[in-house]
Design goal:
The complex is a heterodimer of chains A (about 575) and B (about 600). With about 575 residues, chain A is an alpha+beta fold. Chain A contains twelve helices and 26 strands. With about 600 residues, chain B is of the alpha/beta class. The chains are: A alpha+beta (about 575), B alpha/beta (about 600).
Chain lengths: ~575, ~600
């Protein structure tokens, strides 16, 4: 295979490789100024490779696709792999919906090929390997926190197999994400962190933020529109929200340099496209904020059911960098308002009750759509040490019982597998739906406690997946930029969009012994049992009476003789 | 145990115990009281120390600068409060939002079982406003609470100002690992209860690790007072008190507990009596089972909480609000460092001063010495019942008596006295409307007077009843009844002391002598008088006077009586509002138990 250097595109720039041996790499950064004054930066790096890892095809020549992941795919017959590491909780009420939702901690879900016979064994090995690749505690994924959702996690790539026997889903809500996870993630990029957008990924700034999430998604996609052969797509995403108050010292002004302590000077030479998008939808006339340098390029897209407008900066064009040969985007806020948003769907969860015996998990799901109801899929995976009383499960909306149309419940087995509860619930318009279920806290064996048992035990986020009616479909009245003949029937493709919402994880206290006590208790109980019990038991159960002392030998002989003589004994 | 299984020695031991029973009991009682009084003597107590590693070694630097601005905010708050005629909800929401918090409001309403005359409220409606500072990159699992009550009138404006000032300052710091909930609650504990009982719109921010309630009514203060006693005598982990003390020492703020400063002259009589006073105040407050600050309800949820009150007296040395802000900043930063809930230090303790404490291992023997009297008396009775007095001429009748005190003669007084207890528990609330219609009294008076009425009526009832059922009380009969009563009291006091030592000890102090000396053969009138004096109601009356005396606010008998009535109504209210257990404990268990002894006195 020839080194596909595209000489036409090269002229006096760095040589640009666009498509080589069916390899393609794209990078982009979306910046969205948030309502609250914070700023949301979302990186996406996409590598597509026209190859086939399966069917005994031994792939050994890697170019843009990272070899470590390619080997994982072929060795473990992975069809689809989604892994995310998140530090912080996405604040839907302030920030709206994220582009790629993820729960706090680590989340991993994998679809295996149907050729895999021992799925559990492969899953165990896979998690251990991934744990090494990403420097994370994924090796703590075992049968006690793995579930097989029946409906919530469908394959995102092409393929017809939807038998959930080949699906494994696990979360580690306690996983802490830091630099050590970022470095291996950056190494998967073709340009590393040396060129292109990845130069902005400096850990000292990325972890000085309100929210940080990084993810890797691998899935098979169609090679072309005819879809005769498949390619493998690797998407690496990184989402970060910078805090107005902490990072900007309260000044309502953002720049690339302020956010990442770097400016951009070039695109990744291996990338076929390298772009920065700035969401200016809320700012058509520049009354909210001001972006500099200005760009003539605009792009429109329907994102999460809403038609958004973006300013586009194409990094492959030298003109973008201007005369100073570096791009430092600047966003300056003009107005200051930070009201809460009312996202169409959001959810929260908490534990109610006091004492260490029982409790109740409440999950609240808000449908803020003014007139449309829609169904949601709720997935709850609860560790075995919270014993759910499934008969106490109630679903209520607007004070009335709301019967789920589908329930998939798999009870837990102590020390083996968690509870899995999946429900399809219809959320009435403009309502709060409350799902409650009571539980009992189990008493663990003393070796099963974590080293910090008084911190509490984590219960992973609930996952709510739904097709939400889109905002675009809501404004039937709008004739903006659309000819009349196109807008009579609501367009099917845009009428609803897929949203996944994660609730906050829970921290639950279990009855915890005082671990300095066992020594005392062992000493005390042993002493009491050894010394006290036997004699006390005797005292309680026997009656004592005075017994004549047994006569001596001489007396006994004398008595025998006296008996023979017929004289009363002594 | 070998000693007991040898019948001869056992007999000797038992005869020794029965012969010397009364002197041993007297000695135990004296020893118990002496032990208790010794607890306040400084050489016998331990110095407080920080047990929690996460809060101990890492010192933090306090930098809160904006005390003056906080006072200005407080004045603004006061102006808006006057304008709104209550909680200025809109202003608070706006101010908190401007400080970068996620703001929520919570409306609540509550109808009390009868009007609260102390606080003049019956139908309570209010709003809590709370702003949550979301910790960066934290998954919303843990939170800390800082609250300031919005009280009517001019008090506590500075606390709200300081709360908002701290919110602004905290918001700009990066080191938070736990969410911080800034709460301004209305109607003190009722608002607090609405906030923490987990309804769909209650204050939520993950599991709350610690809470402080701030009360501050002047621009400068002379000392900070720490209030620990919560509902049912629950106390926060001692480390929270240690934390407060450590920062007061570091920053140089005068700190008090029970309003009493620490003194160094423990070897002088006045120094000793000072620490006795401090400890007795704590014992009285704990025994009352009331929450003594807005923090009181958190403790039930296993949330370590305390109230901090700024006091402005006539001392020279003044502290400004910036310093108090620094004190709180330091405490919150340390709490923020916590990896686990506070659990390393003691939950059961008494404090004769802020720097010294008495742990459960030291104070329990005082109670044990009192409780052992009951066991000795029970043993004595048991022996008397097992070996009838060797009176040859009455031998046959004695045998009859041994079998005659059937279940009925013991059960009847037990049941009747408990029914009286149930009446005492239910009637005051049930009959308040009727009483108000019939008599010229208010609802509250009706409740309290009905309670006292039922209590007094109970004295007349039960001792006549057993005669109706089983004729003349027998000698064996009262012994069996007394044996049951003494053991009952021992179990009751033992359990009470485990949950609320102070209450158990005060009850033991008065009820144990009653249980020990009462027989039908003692002089009736004198004993009846002593019995009434030592009954739970009179104990409460004396406690009211004693408490006032300890606080150095002595009252006349008239005022004391009014105070006594209001204390009863507060006790009943606390039970129905917050679930305080003292009223049902007294009404349903302790009072019936005392009635049993009353019954024994009038056995013949």
């Amino acid at each position: 295979c020839a080194t596909g250097i595209n000489m036409q595109a090269a002229h006096w720039l760095a040589p640009r490789m666009t498509r080589q041996c069916g390899n393609d790499f794209q990078e982009e950064l979306v910046i969205r100024p948030l309502h609250s004054g914070d700023i949301y930066a979302s990186f996406q790096f996409r590598t597509v490779w026209e190859t086939d890892f399966m069917r005994g095809n031994k792939v050994s020549h890697y170019r843009l696709f990272p070899k470590s992941l390619g080997q994982v795919i072929s060795k473990f017959s992975v069809r689809e792999l989604h892994i995310s590491f998140t530090q912080g909780y996405w604040r839907t009420m302030q920030w709206g919906q994220p582009f790629q939702p993820s729960p706090p901690g680590a989340e991993l879900w994998v679809w295996f090929q149907d050729s895999v016979t021992d799925v559990d064994g492969t899953w165990k090995e896979l998690t251990n390997v991934l744990s090494g690749i990403f420097c994370a505690s994924l090796n703590f994924i075992d049968s006690t926190n793995t579930v097989q959702p029946s409906a919530s996690f469908k394959p995102l790539g092409i393929g017809n197999e939807t038998d959930h026997r080949f699906l494994r889903y696990a979360t580690l809500p306690r996983e802490i994400v830091c630099t050590e996870n970022l470095t291996p993630w950056k190494k998967l990029l073709p340009c590393g962190s040396k060129a292109g957008l990845a130069v902005l990924l400096k850990s000292e700034k990325l972890f000085h933020s309100s929210f940080h999430s990084q993810a890797v998604h691998i899935r098979p996609v169609c090679q072309d529109w005819q879809c005769k052969t498949t390619s493998w797509e690797l998407r690496q995403t990184l989402n970060v929200v910078f805090d107005l108050h902490n990072s900007a010292q309260g000044k309502r002004e953002w720049s690339l340099f302020k956010m990442f302590s770097r400016t951009l000077t070039e695109a990744c030479p291996l990338a076929s496209s390298s772009k920065i998008y700035i969401d200016i939808t809320d700012n058509p006339q520049g009354e909210q904020f001001e972006v500099s340098p200005a760009t003539p390029l605009l792009s429109q897209a329907v994102v999460l059911g809403d038609r958004r407008t973006f300013s586009v900066y194409d990094l492959t064009q030298q003109i973008t960098f201007g005369t100073v040969r570096s791009l430092n985007l600047l966003i300056r806020w003009k107005s200051s308002e930070g009201d809460m948003l009312r996202p169409l769907l959001h959810a929260e969860r908490y534990v109610a009750g006091y004492g260490l015996q029982t409790g109740e998990i409440h999950t609240l799901m808000y449908n803020n759509h003014p007139y449309r109801s829609f169904p949601v899929l709720l997935l709850d995976s609860v560790p075995w040490y919270l014993r759910l009383y499934i008969h106490t499960l109630t679903v209520t909306s607007k004070g009335k019982d709301n019967k789920p149309s589908y329930i998939h419940y798999q009870p837990s087995k102590d020390r083996l597998r968690p509870h899995l509860l999946e429900m399809l619930v219809q959320l009435p318009p403009n309502s709060v739906t409350e799902v409650t279920v009571q539980f009992e806290r189990a008493l663990l064996k003393w070796t099963e406690y974590t080293p910090d048992p008084n911190h509490g035990f984590y219960v992973g986020s609930s996952v709510i997946s739904s097709l939400v009616p889109s905002i675009v479909a809501m404004d039937t009245n709008s004739t903006r930029e659309r000819p009349l003949f196109s807008s009579f029937f609501p367009c099917k493709e845009e009428s609803s969009y897929f949203v996944r919402v994660y609730t906050e994880p829970l921290l639950v206290n279990l009855p915890t012994p005082d671990f300095s006590m066992p020594y005392n208790v062992i000493c005390l109980t042993c002493t009491v049992v050894a010394v006290g019990y036997g004699s006390l038991y005797n005292l309680l159960t026997r009656s004592f009476q005075i017994e004549e002392p047994s006569p001596g030998l001489a007396k006994r002989i004398a008595n025998i003789i006296r008996k023979m003589r017929g004289v009363p004994p002594l | 145990m070998g000693l007991l299984s040898d019948p001869n020695r056992r007999r000797a031991l038992i005869s020794l115990l029965t012969r010397l029973n009364s002197p041993i009991c007297v000695v135990c009682y004296m020893a118990g009281v002496a032990w208790f009084m010794g607890l306040a003597f400084e050489p016998f107590t331990l110095r407080t120390y920080m047990s929690e590693n996460a809060m101990g070694s890492t010192m933090v630097e306090e930098r809160f600068p904006a005390g003056e601005r906080a006072l200005t905010t407080g004045r603004e708050f006061s102006a808006h409060k006057k304008k709104a005629g209550g909680m200025p909800v809109d202003w608070l929401v706006k101010t908190m939002q401007a400080r970068g918090l996620e703001v929520f409001t919570q409306r609540f309403s509550r109808k009390l079982p009868f009007p609260d005359e102390n606080k003049e409220r019956y139908m309570v409606k209010g709003t809590n406003v709370y702003g949550i500072l979301r910790a960066p990159r934290a998954p919303r699992t843990e939170a800390l609470v800082l609250s300031a009550p919005c009280t009517p009138g001019d008090s506590n404006n500075q606390a709200v100002g300081l709360l908002l000032g701290l919110a602004q300052y905290f918001r700009n710091q990066i080191y938070w690992a736990k969410d911080i909930i800034f709460l301004v609650n209305e109607h003190d504990l009722i608002g607090m209860q609405a906030c923490i009982t987990f309804s769909p719109d209650s204050c939520r921010g993950g599991s709350i690790q610690a809470a402080l309630s701030l009360e501050l009514s002047s621009d400068v203060i002379t000392s900070m007072d720490l209030v620990l006693e919560g509902l049912n005598g629950q106390l926060p982990n001692l480390d929270l008190a240690n934390l407060f003390y450590a920062f007061c020492q570091k920053i140089g703020v005068l700190c008090t507990i029970q309003g009493k400063l620490q003194r160094n002259d423990w070897d002088s009589v006045s120094g000793y009596s000072h620490s006795v006073q401090t400890m007795m105040l704590m014992v009285m407050k704990q025994a009352s089972g009331r929450p003594w600050g807005d923090h009181g309800l958190f403790l039930r949820y296993h949330i370590e909480a305390a109230s901090i009150k700024g006091i402005n007296s006539f001392r020279q040395y003044k502290t400004d609000v910036t310093t108090i802000g620094r004190l709180l900043e330091g405490m919150y930063r340390k709490l923020n460092n916590l990896l686990e809930r506070l659990h390393q230090s003691y939950f059961f303790y008494l404090m004769p001063s802020l720097s010294h404490f008495v742990s459960i291992g030291y104070y329990m023997p005082a109670f044990g010495l009192l409780a052992v009297i009951l066991l000795l008396r029970a043993l004595d009775l048991w022996v008397q019942l097992a070996t009838p007095p060797p009176r040859t001429e009455d031998g046959i009748t004695d045998k009859e008596q041994v079998s005659s005190p059937g279940v009925l003669s013991v059960l009847t007084p037990l049941v009747i006295s408990h029914l009286t207890g149930v009446a005492l528990y239910t009637l005051p609330i049930q009959f308040q409307e009727m009483a108000v219609e019939q008599f010229p009294v208010s609802e509250t008076e009706a409740v309290v007077l009905t309670a006292i009425g039922v209590y007094t009526a109970g004295l007349a009832l039960p001792h006549n009843t057993h005669r109706l059922l089983s004729g003349e009380g027998t000698e064996q009969g009262w012994r069996v009844l007394k044996l049951v009563a003494v053991l009952y009291l021992a179990v009751l006091l033992g359990c009470t002391a485990l949950i609320n030592f102070s209450l158990g000890f005060i009850l033991a102090l008065t009820l144990v002598p009653v249980a020990a000396f009462v027989t039908p053969h003692v002089p009736k009138v004198l004993s009846a008088f002593i019995l009434v004096i030592l009954s739970p109601a009179c104990t409460l009356l004396f406690s009211v006077f004693f408490f006032q005396e300890l606080q150095e606010l002595p009252v006349s008998f008239q005022e004391g009586w009014l105070l006594y009535l209001s204390v009863i109504s507060q006790g009943i209210l606390d039970h129905f509002l917050y679930g305080s257990l003292v009223y049902p404990l007294i009404a349903l268990l302790v009072y019936p138990c005392w009635l049993l002894f009353w019954n024994i006195l009038f056995w013949k």
